[in-house]
Specification:
The complex is a heterodimer of chains A (about 110) and B (about 110).
Chain A (H helix, E strand, L loop, with lengths): L3 E4 L2 E5 L4 E7 L4 E9 L5 E8 L4 E4 L2 E6 L4 E6 L8 E9 L6 E3 L3 E6 L1
Parallel strand pairs in A: 2-11
Antiparallel strand pairs in A: 1-3, 3-8, 4-5, 4-9, 6-7, 7-8, 9-10, 9-11
Chain B lengths: L3 E4 L2 E4 L5 E7 L5 E7 L5 E8 L5 E2 L10 E5 L2 E6 L8 E9 L2 E4 L3 E5 L1
Parallel strand pairs in B: 2-11
Antiparallel strand pairs in B: 1-3, 3-8, 4-5, 4-9, 5-6, 7-8, 9-10, 9-11
Classes of the chains: A mainly beta (about 110), B mainly beta (about 110).
């Protein structure tokens, strides 16, 4: 059974700091990994998608890496801003018939002005 | 990408009643997914809804408790039946375009 763990559960940083969020998964048989952002009372916003054959993806100040063999992914946020404050969720796409995503519990990020 | 609209955005319901959540997508999709996010927990897939066939439920979820309709390629409903306080959660609808998943804004349900 695939399990996804995100560390830390919460993180508070001053504005402008570079930071790394971690995600680990127990079964390397994934077909992709997706990072989402969730704002309070809102749904999920897709940030980055990494296919199983890829090592990293970049979008603006965000960079996500994937090491399938070790079951790890990191989300790097450069020059953090107060608007980056949200919960960041990691989800792995599980191979099989249901095409479902298995989520971690998330990292709650607070960027202080 | 896909734009997903969910209704209602939130509701407070009495135990023993039922609530139907609607999900509308701006494009035709083969599969629609319903997730539950309990307080402090990760999202868990409830079921996958295909147009023209019965939904496929994940372990721990049953059709009598969470009946799903999928009348066409852009719309689905999830009903939470005979609610108890343990059903208080955020319920989210999701679709895939290509390999990327997109989510609605969720329905925050509180059962009292």
């Amino acid at each position: 059974k695939q399990e996804v763990t995100q560390i830390p559960a919460a993180l508070s940083v001053p504005e402008g700091e570079n930071l790394v969020l971690n995600c680990s998964f127990t079964d390397s048989a994934i077909y992709n990994l997706q990072w989402f952002r969730q704002d309070p009372g809102k749904g999920l916003t897709s940030l980055l998608l990494i296919q199983s054959s890829q090592r990293e993806q970049t979008s603006g100040r965000l960079n996500a890496s994937l090491d399938k063999s070790s079951g790890r992914s990191t989300l790097y946020i450069a020059a953090s801003q107060p608007g980056d404050s949200a919960t960041y969720l990691c989800a792995v796409g599980v191979k099989g018939g249901s095409e479902k995503l298995v989520f971690g519990k998330g990292t709650k990020l607070t960027v202080n002005p | 990408s896909a734009v997903i609209s969910q209704k209602p955005s939130r509701d407070i319901c009495q135990r023993g009643t039922s609530l139907t959540i609607q999900c509308q997508v701006d494009s035709q999709v083969t599969m629609m997914f319903w997730y539950r996010q309990q307080p402090g927990q990760s999202l868990t897939l409830i079921a996958t809804a295909n147009q023209g066939s019965e939904a496929t439920y994940e372990s721990g979820f049953v059709i009598d408790k969470f009946p799903i309709s999928r009348p066409n390629l852009t719309f689905s409903t999830l009903t939470v039946s005979n609610m108890s306080p343990e059903d208080s959660s955020i319920y989210l609808c999701s679709v895939r375009t290509g390999v990327e998943a997109f989510f609605g804004q969720g329905t925050r349900l509180t059962v009292v």
